[in-house]
Each structure stands twice: as structure tokens, then as C-alpha cells.
Amino acid sequence: MSVKTLTINDQLISAQEEDTLLQAAQEAGIHIPTLCHLEGVGDVGACRLCLVEIAGSNKLQPACVTKVAEGLEVNTNSDRLQKYRRTIVEMLFAEGNHICSVCVANNNCELQDLAIEMGMDHVRLEYHFPDRQVDVSHDRFGVDHNRCVLCTRCIRVCDEIEGAHTWDMAGRGTNSHVITDLSQPWGTSETCTSCGKCVNACPTGAIFYQGSSVGEMKRDRAKLDFLVTAREKQQWNL
């Protein structure tokens, strides 16, 4: 596998040819905001928060799905990018029903952290206040569609790590929403293994442990990392 040399924020770095710009930046200690990215599962470029500027192109590119290339000159932190990222975060708040003060993930939410990082002290857009449902039919977990940001982490972790394929996406545009088993109540699912990986993968308070109260939604990302790498590192015997 060949090595590519490129520049990110005027810093000369080297990366494997199969690496993405996000991976190359992270290896070099350069921070790029993300929301739909989750270590260990495939990237889809859904949230667009990792958009970067590449010299010679007017089009912003998502760092999580853009491969490195020899001689690229990448900027991850311009005024233009910060403006786009703040607008994206504001849109996520305006399009959902995110009330942090009563959310199980308050102070433990990646969307909330991004809002702070972007310097967002208010939402300049008009709130949609959509009519979304809460499903607590499962005996251990619940899903609150009001807090979902459509990152598809739950879908990918269920497909790629657990292999259950319980979660999927339905609808289009503002009607898009995650579903279980062809839009059946989660508690009636015949494919769900109740493993909890989707709960640990969710960046907000959308998927939660039943019984969690405000600010109690803790997640163990290390558990997902272990499941992804355990077979390669022979940390268990099959």
C-alpha cells in the first residue's frame, strides 16, 4: 500500500492511500467536527459537518468519505466552513424537537457539544416543531424520534457489527425517519437481539435505556471499539 503526502492546514502529513481525509487529519491530531461518523463502522457522509476545502475546487468535500491523494492542499477551519457547520447544527435543532433541559442525554450529547463548539447561543431559523412519536414498546430500550438527527449510526452498527439488520430508514426529506422491522413497533421485532449497540452508538438522546432520567444517558463507546477489533486482535476464540 503506497503512501500519499498532502497538506492539511499548512501541515505536511503522510497517509496510506486507502485513508480518508478524516482519518489522515485525526492521525495528525487535527480536529474535524463530525456527527454521523462512528469509529469501526462504514462512513456515509450524512451530516456534512466534516466538510473541508480542497485547493483548486470550489466544491466542499466531506472528509469522512474523501480519499487522500498526492499533493492535496486541504483546509479544515476557514470562516466559510465554520459558517456552514453552524448553519447545519442550527438546522438540526430547528428540524427536530431538541429540549436539552429535559433530555436523558443532557451534558452527554454530541449535538449539544457541537452547538457549543460552533458558538451557537441561539437558533436563527424557524422551528418546525414536527409531530414525532416515542416508541417504548421494547422492554429495555426506547426511541424518541423527536431527538433523532438521522445520522444512521444505529442502522450501520446493527448491520455491520451485530448483523441483525433490525434498523432501517423510511420516508424522504423531512419525512425521513428510522424504523425497526418494516416500521413495526420495536418491542415486536423478531430480529432485534437486545444487544444495546444502537443505544451506545446514538449521538443524542434518541435511543435510550428505559428508566434513564434527565442527564443520565451514559454510553460506552469503548465497548463498540472492542467488538470491532476483537476478532482481528484475537482477543477471543471463535
Task: Explain the overall architecture.
With 238 residues, the chain is of the alpha+beta class. The chain contains six helices and ten strands; from the N terminus they run E-E-H-E-E-E-H-H-E-E-H-E-E-H-E-H. The protein has helices at 21-27, 79-95, 110-117, 153-162, 197-201, 221-229, and strands at 3-8, 11-16, 51-54, 61-62, 73-75, 134-135, 141-144, 167-170, 177-180, 207-209. The strands form three sheets. It has a five-stranded mixed β-sheet with strand order 2-1-5-3-4, with helices on one face. Strands 6-7-10 form a three-stranded antiparallel β-sheet. A two-stranded antiparallel sheet has the order 8-9. Strand 8 (167-170) and strand 9 (177-180) form a beta hairpin.
Per-chain topology:
Blueprint: E1 3-8, E2 11-16, H1 21-27, E3 51-54, E4 61-62, E5 73-75, H2 79-95, H3 110-117, E6 134-135, E7 141-144, H4 153-162, E8 167-170, E9 177-180, H5 197-201, E10 207-209, H6 221-229
Parallel strand pairs: 1-5
Antiparallel strand pairs: 1-2, 3-4, 3-5, 6-7, 7-10, 8-9
Keywords: 4Fe-4S, Iron, Iron-sulfur, Metal-binding
Protein name: Bidirectional hydrogenase complex protein HoxU
Domain 4Fe-4S ferredoxin-type: 139-170, 183-212
